[in-house]
């Protein structure tokens, strides 16, 4: 009665939590990510501006803070800025109005520095110093960037700053191919592709080109004196900074105070900055007075450089006595700007400079209508996946299935409410994670339900079976869910932003599913344990409850060589496919640009290729997209590593709009989606993927070694590697594209394969002390026969939501689901036919099991039976048929029964079988009474004899 009352109290608390969850769902808004709301996603590589090293965590976090302030100034409400790994920063801007303006604002370093101009400008020998004569004031500059960079490269390195690398053509004109970059590797993997034939660099220096290195202590800056873009000059400066933009308190758009009346930027310095500015301008005044050229006092200048461009070059007039003490007041003004330039510069300065330099690695744009279509497809997949799982549980577990379905509904509500409470942003991978956690929640119930059914078959009452089933199944659930959470955590830490949504959903969903399975389902079953509807075993899906026999009698270990051969053949075929055809790596790994476009007018692949070739991408891969209602019947996907410049994409878009007209739901929402990934970013993703997989294997192996033993971890890691290799082999054989989503799928496969394997290993661990005279192969066969139904049921519950993703999830989720489906099948196979046999080969070599095997061989004419003679619920059963033996067995049967383990429900540490001829029931045990009996019992448990 007390137990029922406790369960009612738990259900009452769950009801309150359910009401609060529904309220949270109705009140708090749902945040949609870029791929569902449309917008632009930018991924940058961060590097320190003044040091040749990786950025520190503090620098990256400060950069994220500055970027967030810039994004907020755009009015984007659902933006996300987050670090990916140690060097990457991903910026997602859903539903942004002007993607190009956003990209310009977010990615600009906005590093402002103030220089004494004449003191730091470098000229060739023979060049005269600048004077206040306009015609000669810039005679230390160059009209070609190449000449300035070449001059800088000839200087002796200074002590501070960083080297910068440029790649120029050696043909006439010395056109810039790529740069500046902070390393030669980045330079030759640059996304800029301005070579003559438009080919990518791919880490190789093209012919007829040269790499110039600007040493530490020098910078090359541009100055557009006329503000027209036609008179730009290039200067070499010693990097001796008078003051930095950190000393600027604020910047605002103003009016030229010198009588021009044009737009200007008003700078307001900090108190320290004001003092420095006053001192520097005083020094410039004094230096100007000290020089006399052609009878005049030249004006020394003060340069303001913003991101490598001179935005102001103001003279300090030595004839103006009011400047003799410097410019006080802590203010300055940048003039000679257009209104747009003034607005942009003021905003960049006011929002603050980035503490790192950002290099764009990838760019993705998604239209709002495509995002809505993807959301609809994902929600349908989630609903169908839930229906699949619920129908399976109902058919297989009857009344228990109904209870599990109720628990799944609770799970969905709790999960959705928690995501809203935590501010979780839903993305396509996140919804995929939600669909997959349905199987995690169902699997936890299956583990418990199968335990309950075992106890019912053993003759226990429903109340006792529920209690025992939960107590025995909890450790299995805990182990399986912990490793899934570990996998999700590693994936979240090491993966890119898109996959992080999946990892977060998987980890969060696993925690919530553990709560619903252990707390909610347990409380419901506890309250209903005395209900008549649960009294009949058939109502729970239990058939033949009175028969004490195992449902599976297959010699799993005896057929292990056959299964090893099957796996070997599959792995060999996959290895040959990978070696011969290679993996079809997507642009996530190789770099390049992918364009998805829907056209109003019919077009052929050749017509689309002609447009793309005109932009310099003649080798582009053109694919027609079918069955996409949003894109329409004339949709194409264009993939190429020769499209990188913004003008290339603009040219393709303009030509397609002119010839075929791009589909659009509004002027701002056209079906023209661009994804660009730089080769450097691709290598970062590849390294992150490999690191995540290796680290996951190490951590999971360590956890299993801690929980089960070292010899259990090795076969488990072999089985997991087997699943990954088979999945990659199938991908190579079918030519499927490998993307970052595939990496997420591979890591998910690790979790689900491990789930199945742990179910098997947990039962092996449980049966080892209960079968003190059996060989290890007999223990494993017995364990496999007990858990095979459960293992197949959990695998099917995993496969059903994956199947829903495959059928209804849209193109992105379908590619993800293919890897998961292959991995689920492979994981089920490996946990049964690879992990357990490998464990058996290892354990059979231990002295105690060698002795047992030798004794069994001697007793059975050189043969080890697949199953040892057993007892179930204290009743002896035949080893081969599973039928109940007579209550008074013959002497030879009694001799066989010496191999019998202690009954499952009475598991005393030093228990021994009851003596023959006693009044105890067959298979019963008695506790040792004397010290000698306890010593003998311990010896028997230790040595098996």
What does this protein look like?
The protein is an alpha+beta fold and 945 residues long. Helices cover 51% and strands 16% of the residues. The protein has 26 helices and 31 strands. The strands form ten sheets. An eight-stranded antiparallel sheet has the order 3-4-2-18-26-21-23-22. Strands 12-5-15-16 form a four-stranded antiparallel sheet. Helix 1 crosses helix 11 and helix 11 (399-421) runs antiparallel to helix 12 (428-457). The protein is elongated, with a radius of gyration of 36 Å. 47% of the residues are buried. The model is unreliable at 130-137, 545-549, 871-926 and 941-945 (pLDDT under 50).
Low-confidence stretches: 130-137, 545-549, 871-926, 941-945
Mean pLDDT: 76
Shape: elongated
Q: Give the oligomeric state of the chains in this entry, treating copies of one chain as homo and distinct chains as hetero.
A: single chain
Number of strands: 31
Question: Any key phrases for this structure?
Answer:
single chain; 945 residues; alpha+beta; eight-stranded antiparallel sheet; four-stranded antiparallel sheet; 51% helix; 16% strand; disordered C terminus
Provide a compact summary of the structure.
The protein has 945 residues and is of the alpha+beta class.
How is this fold's topology laid out?
Layout: H1 2-27, E1 31-32, H2 34-37, E2 39-48, H3 57-73, E3 80-84, E4 88-94, H4 99-107, E5 112-116, H5 117-120, E6 121-122, H6 145-153, E7 164-169, E8 176-181, H7 184-188, E9 209-214, E10 218-224, E11 232-238, E12 243-244, E13 248-255, E14 263-269, H8 271-290, E15 300-306, E16 309-316, E17 331-334, H9 339-351, E18 356-366, H10 368-397, H11 399-421, E19 425-426, H12 428-457, H13 462-494, H14 497-528, H15 560-580, E20 584-585, H16 587-590, E21 592-598, H17 605-614, E22 621-625, E23 635-640, H18 646-659, E24 664-666, E25 669-670, E26 672-677, H19 679-707, H20 710-734, E27 737-738, H21 740-767, H22 776-808, H23 810-843, H24 847-859, E28 870-872, E29 875-877, H25 891-896, E30 912-913, E31 925-926, H26 931-943
Parallel strand pairs: 1-19, 20-27
Antiparallel strand pairs: 2-4, 2-18, 3-4, 5-12, 5-15, 6-11, 7-8, 7-9, 10-11, 13-14, 14-17, 15-16, 18-26, 21-23, 21-26, 22-23, 24-25, 28-29, 30-31
Helix pairs in contact: 1-11, 1-14, 10-11, 10-12, 10-22, 11-12, 11-14, 12-13, 12-14, 12-22, 13-14, 13-19, 13-21, 15-20, 19-20, 19-21, 20-21, 20-23, 21-22, 21-23, 22-23
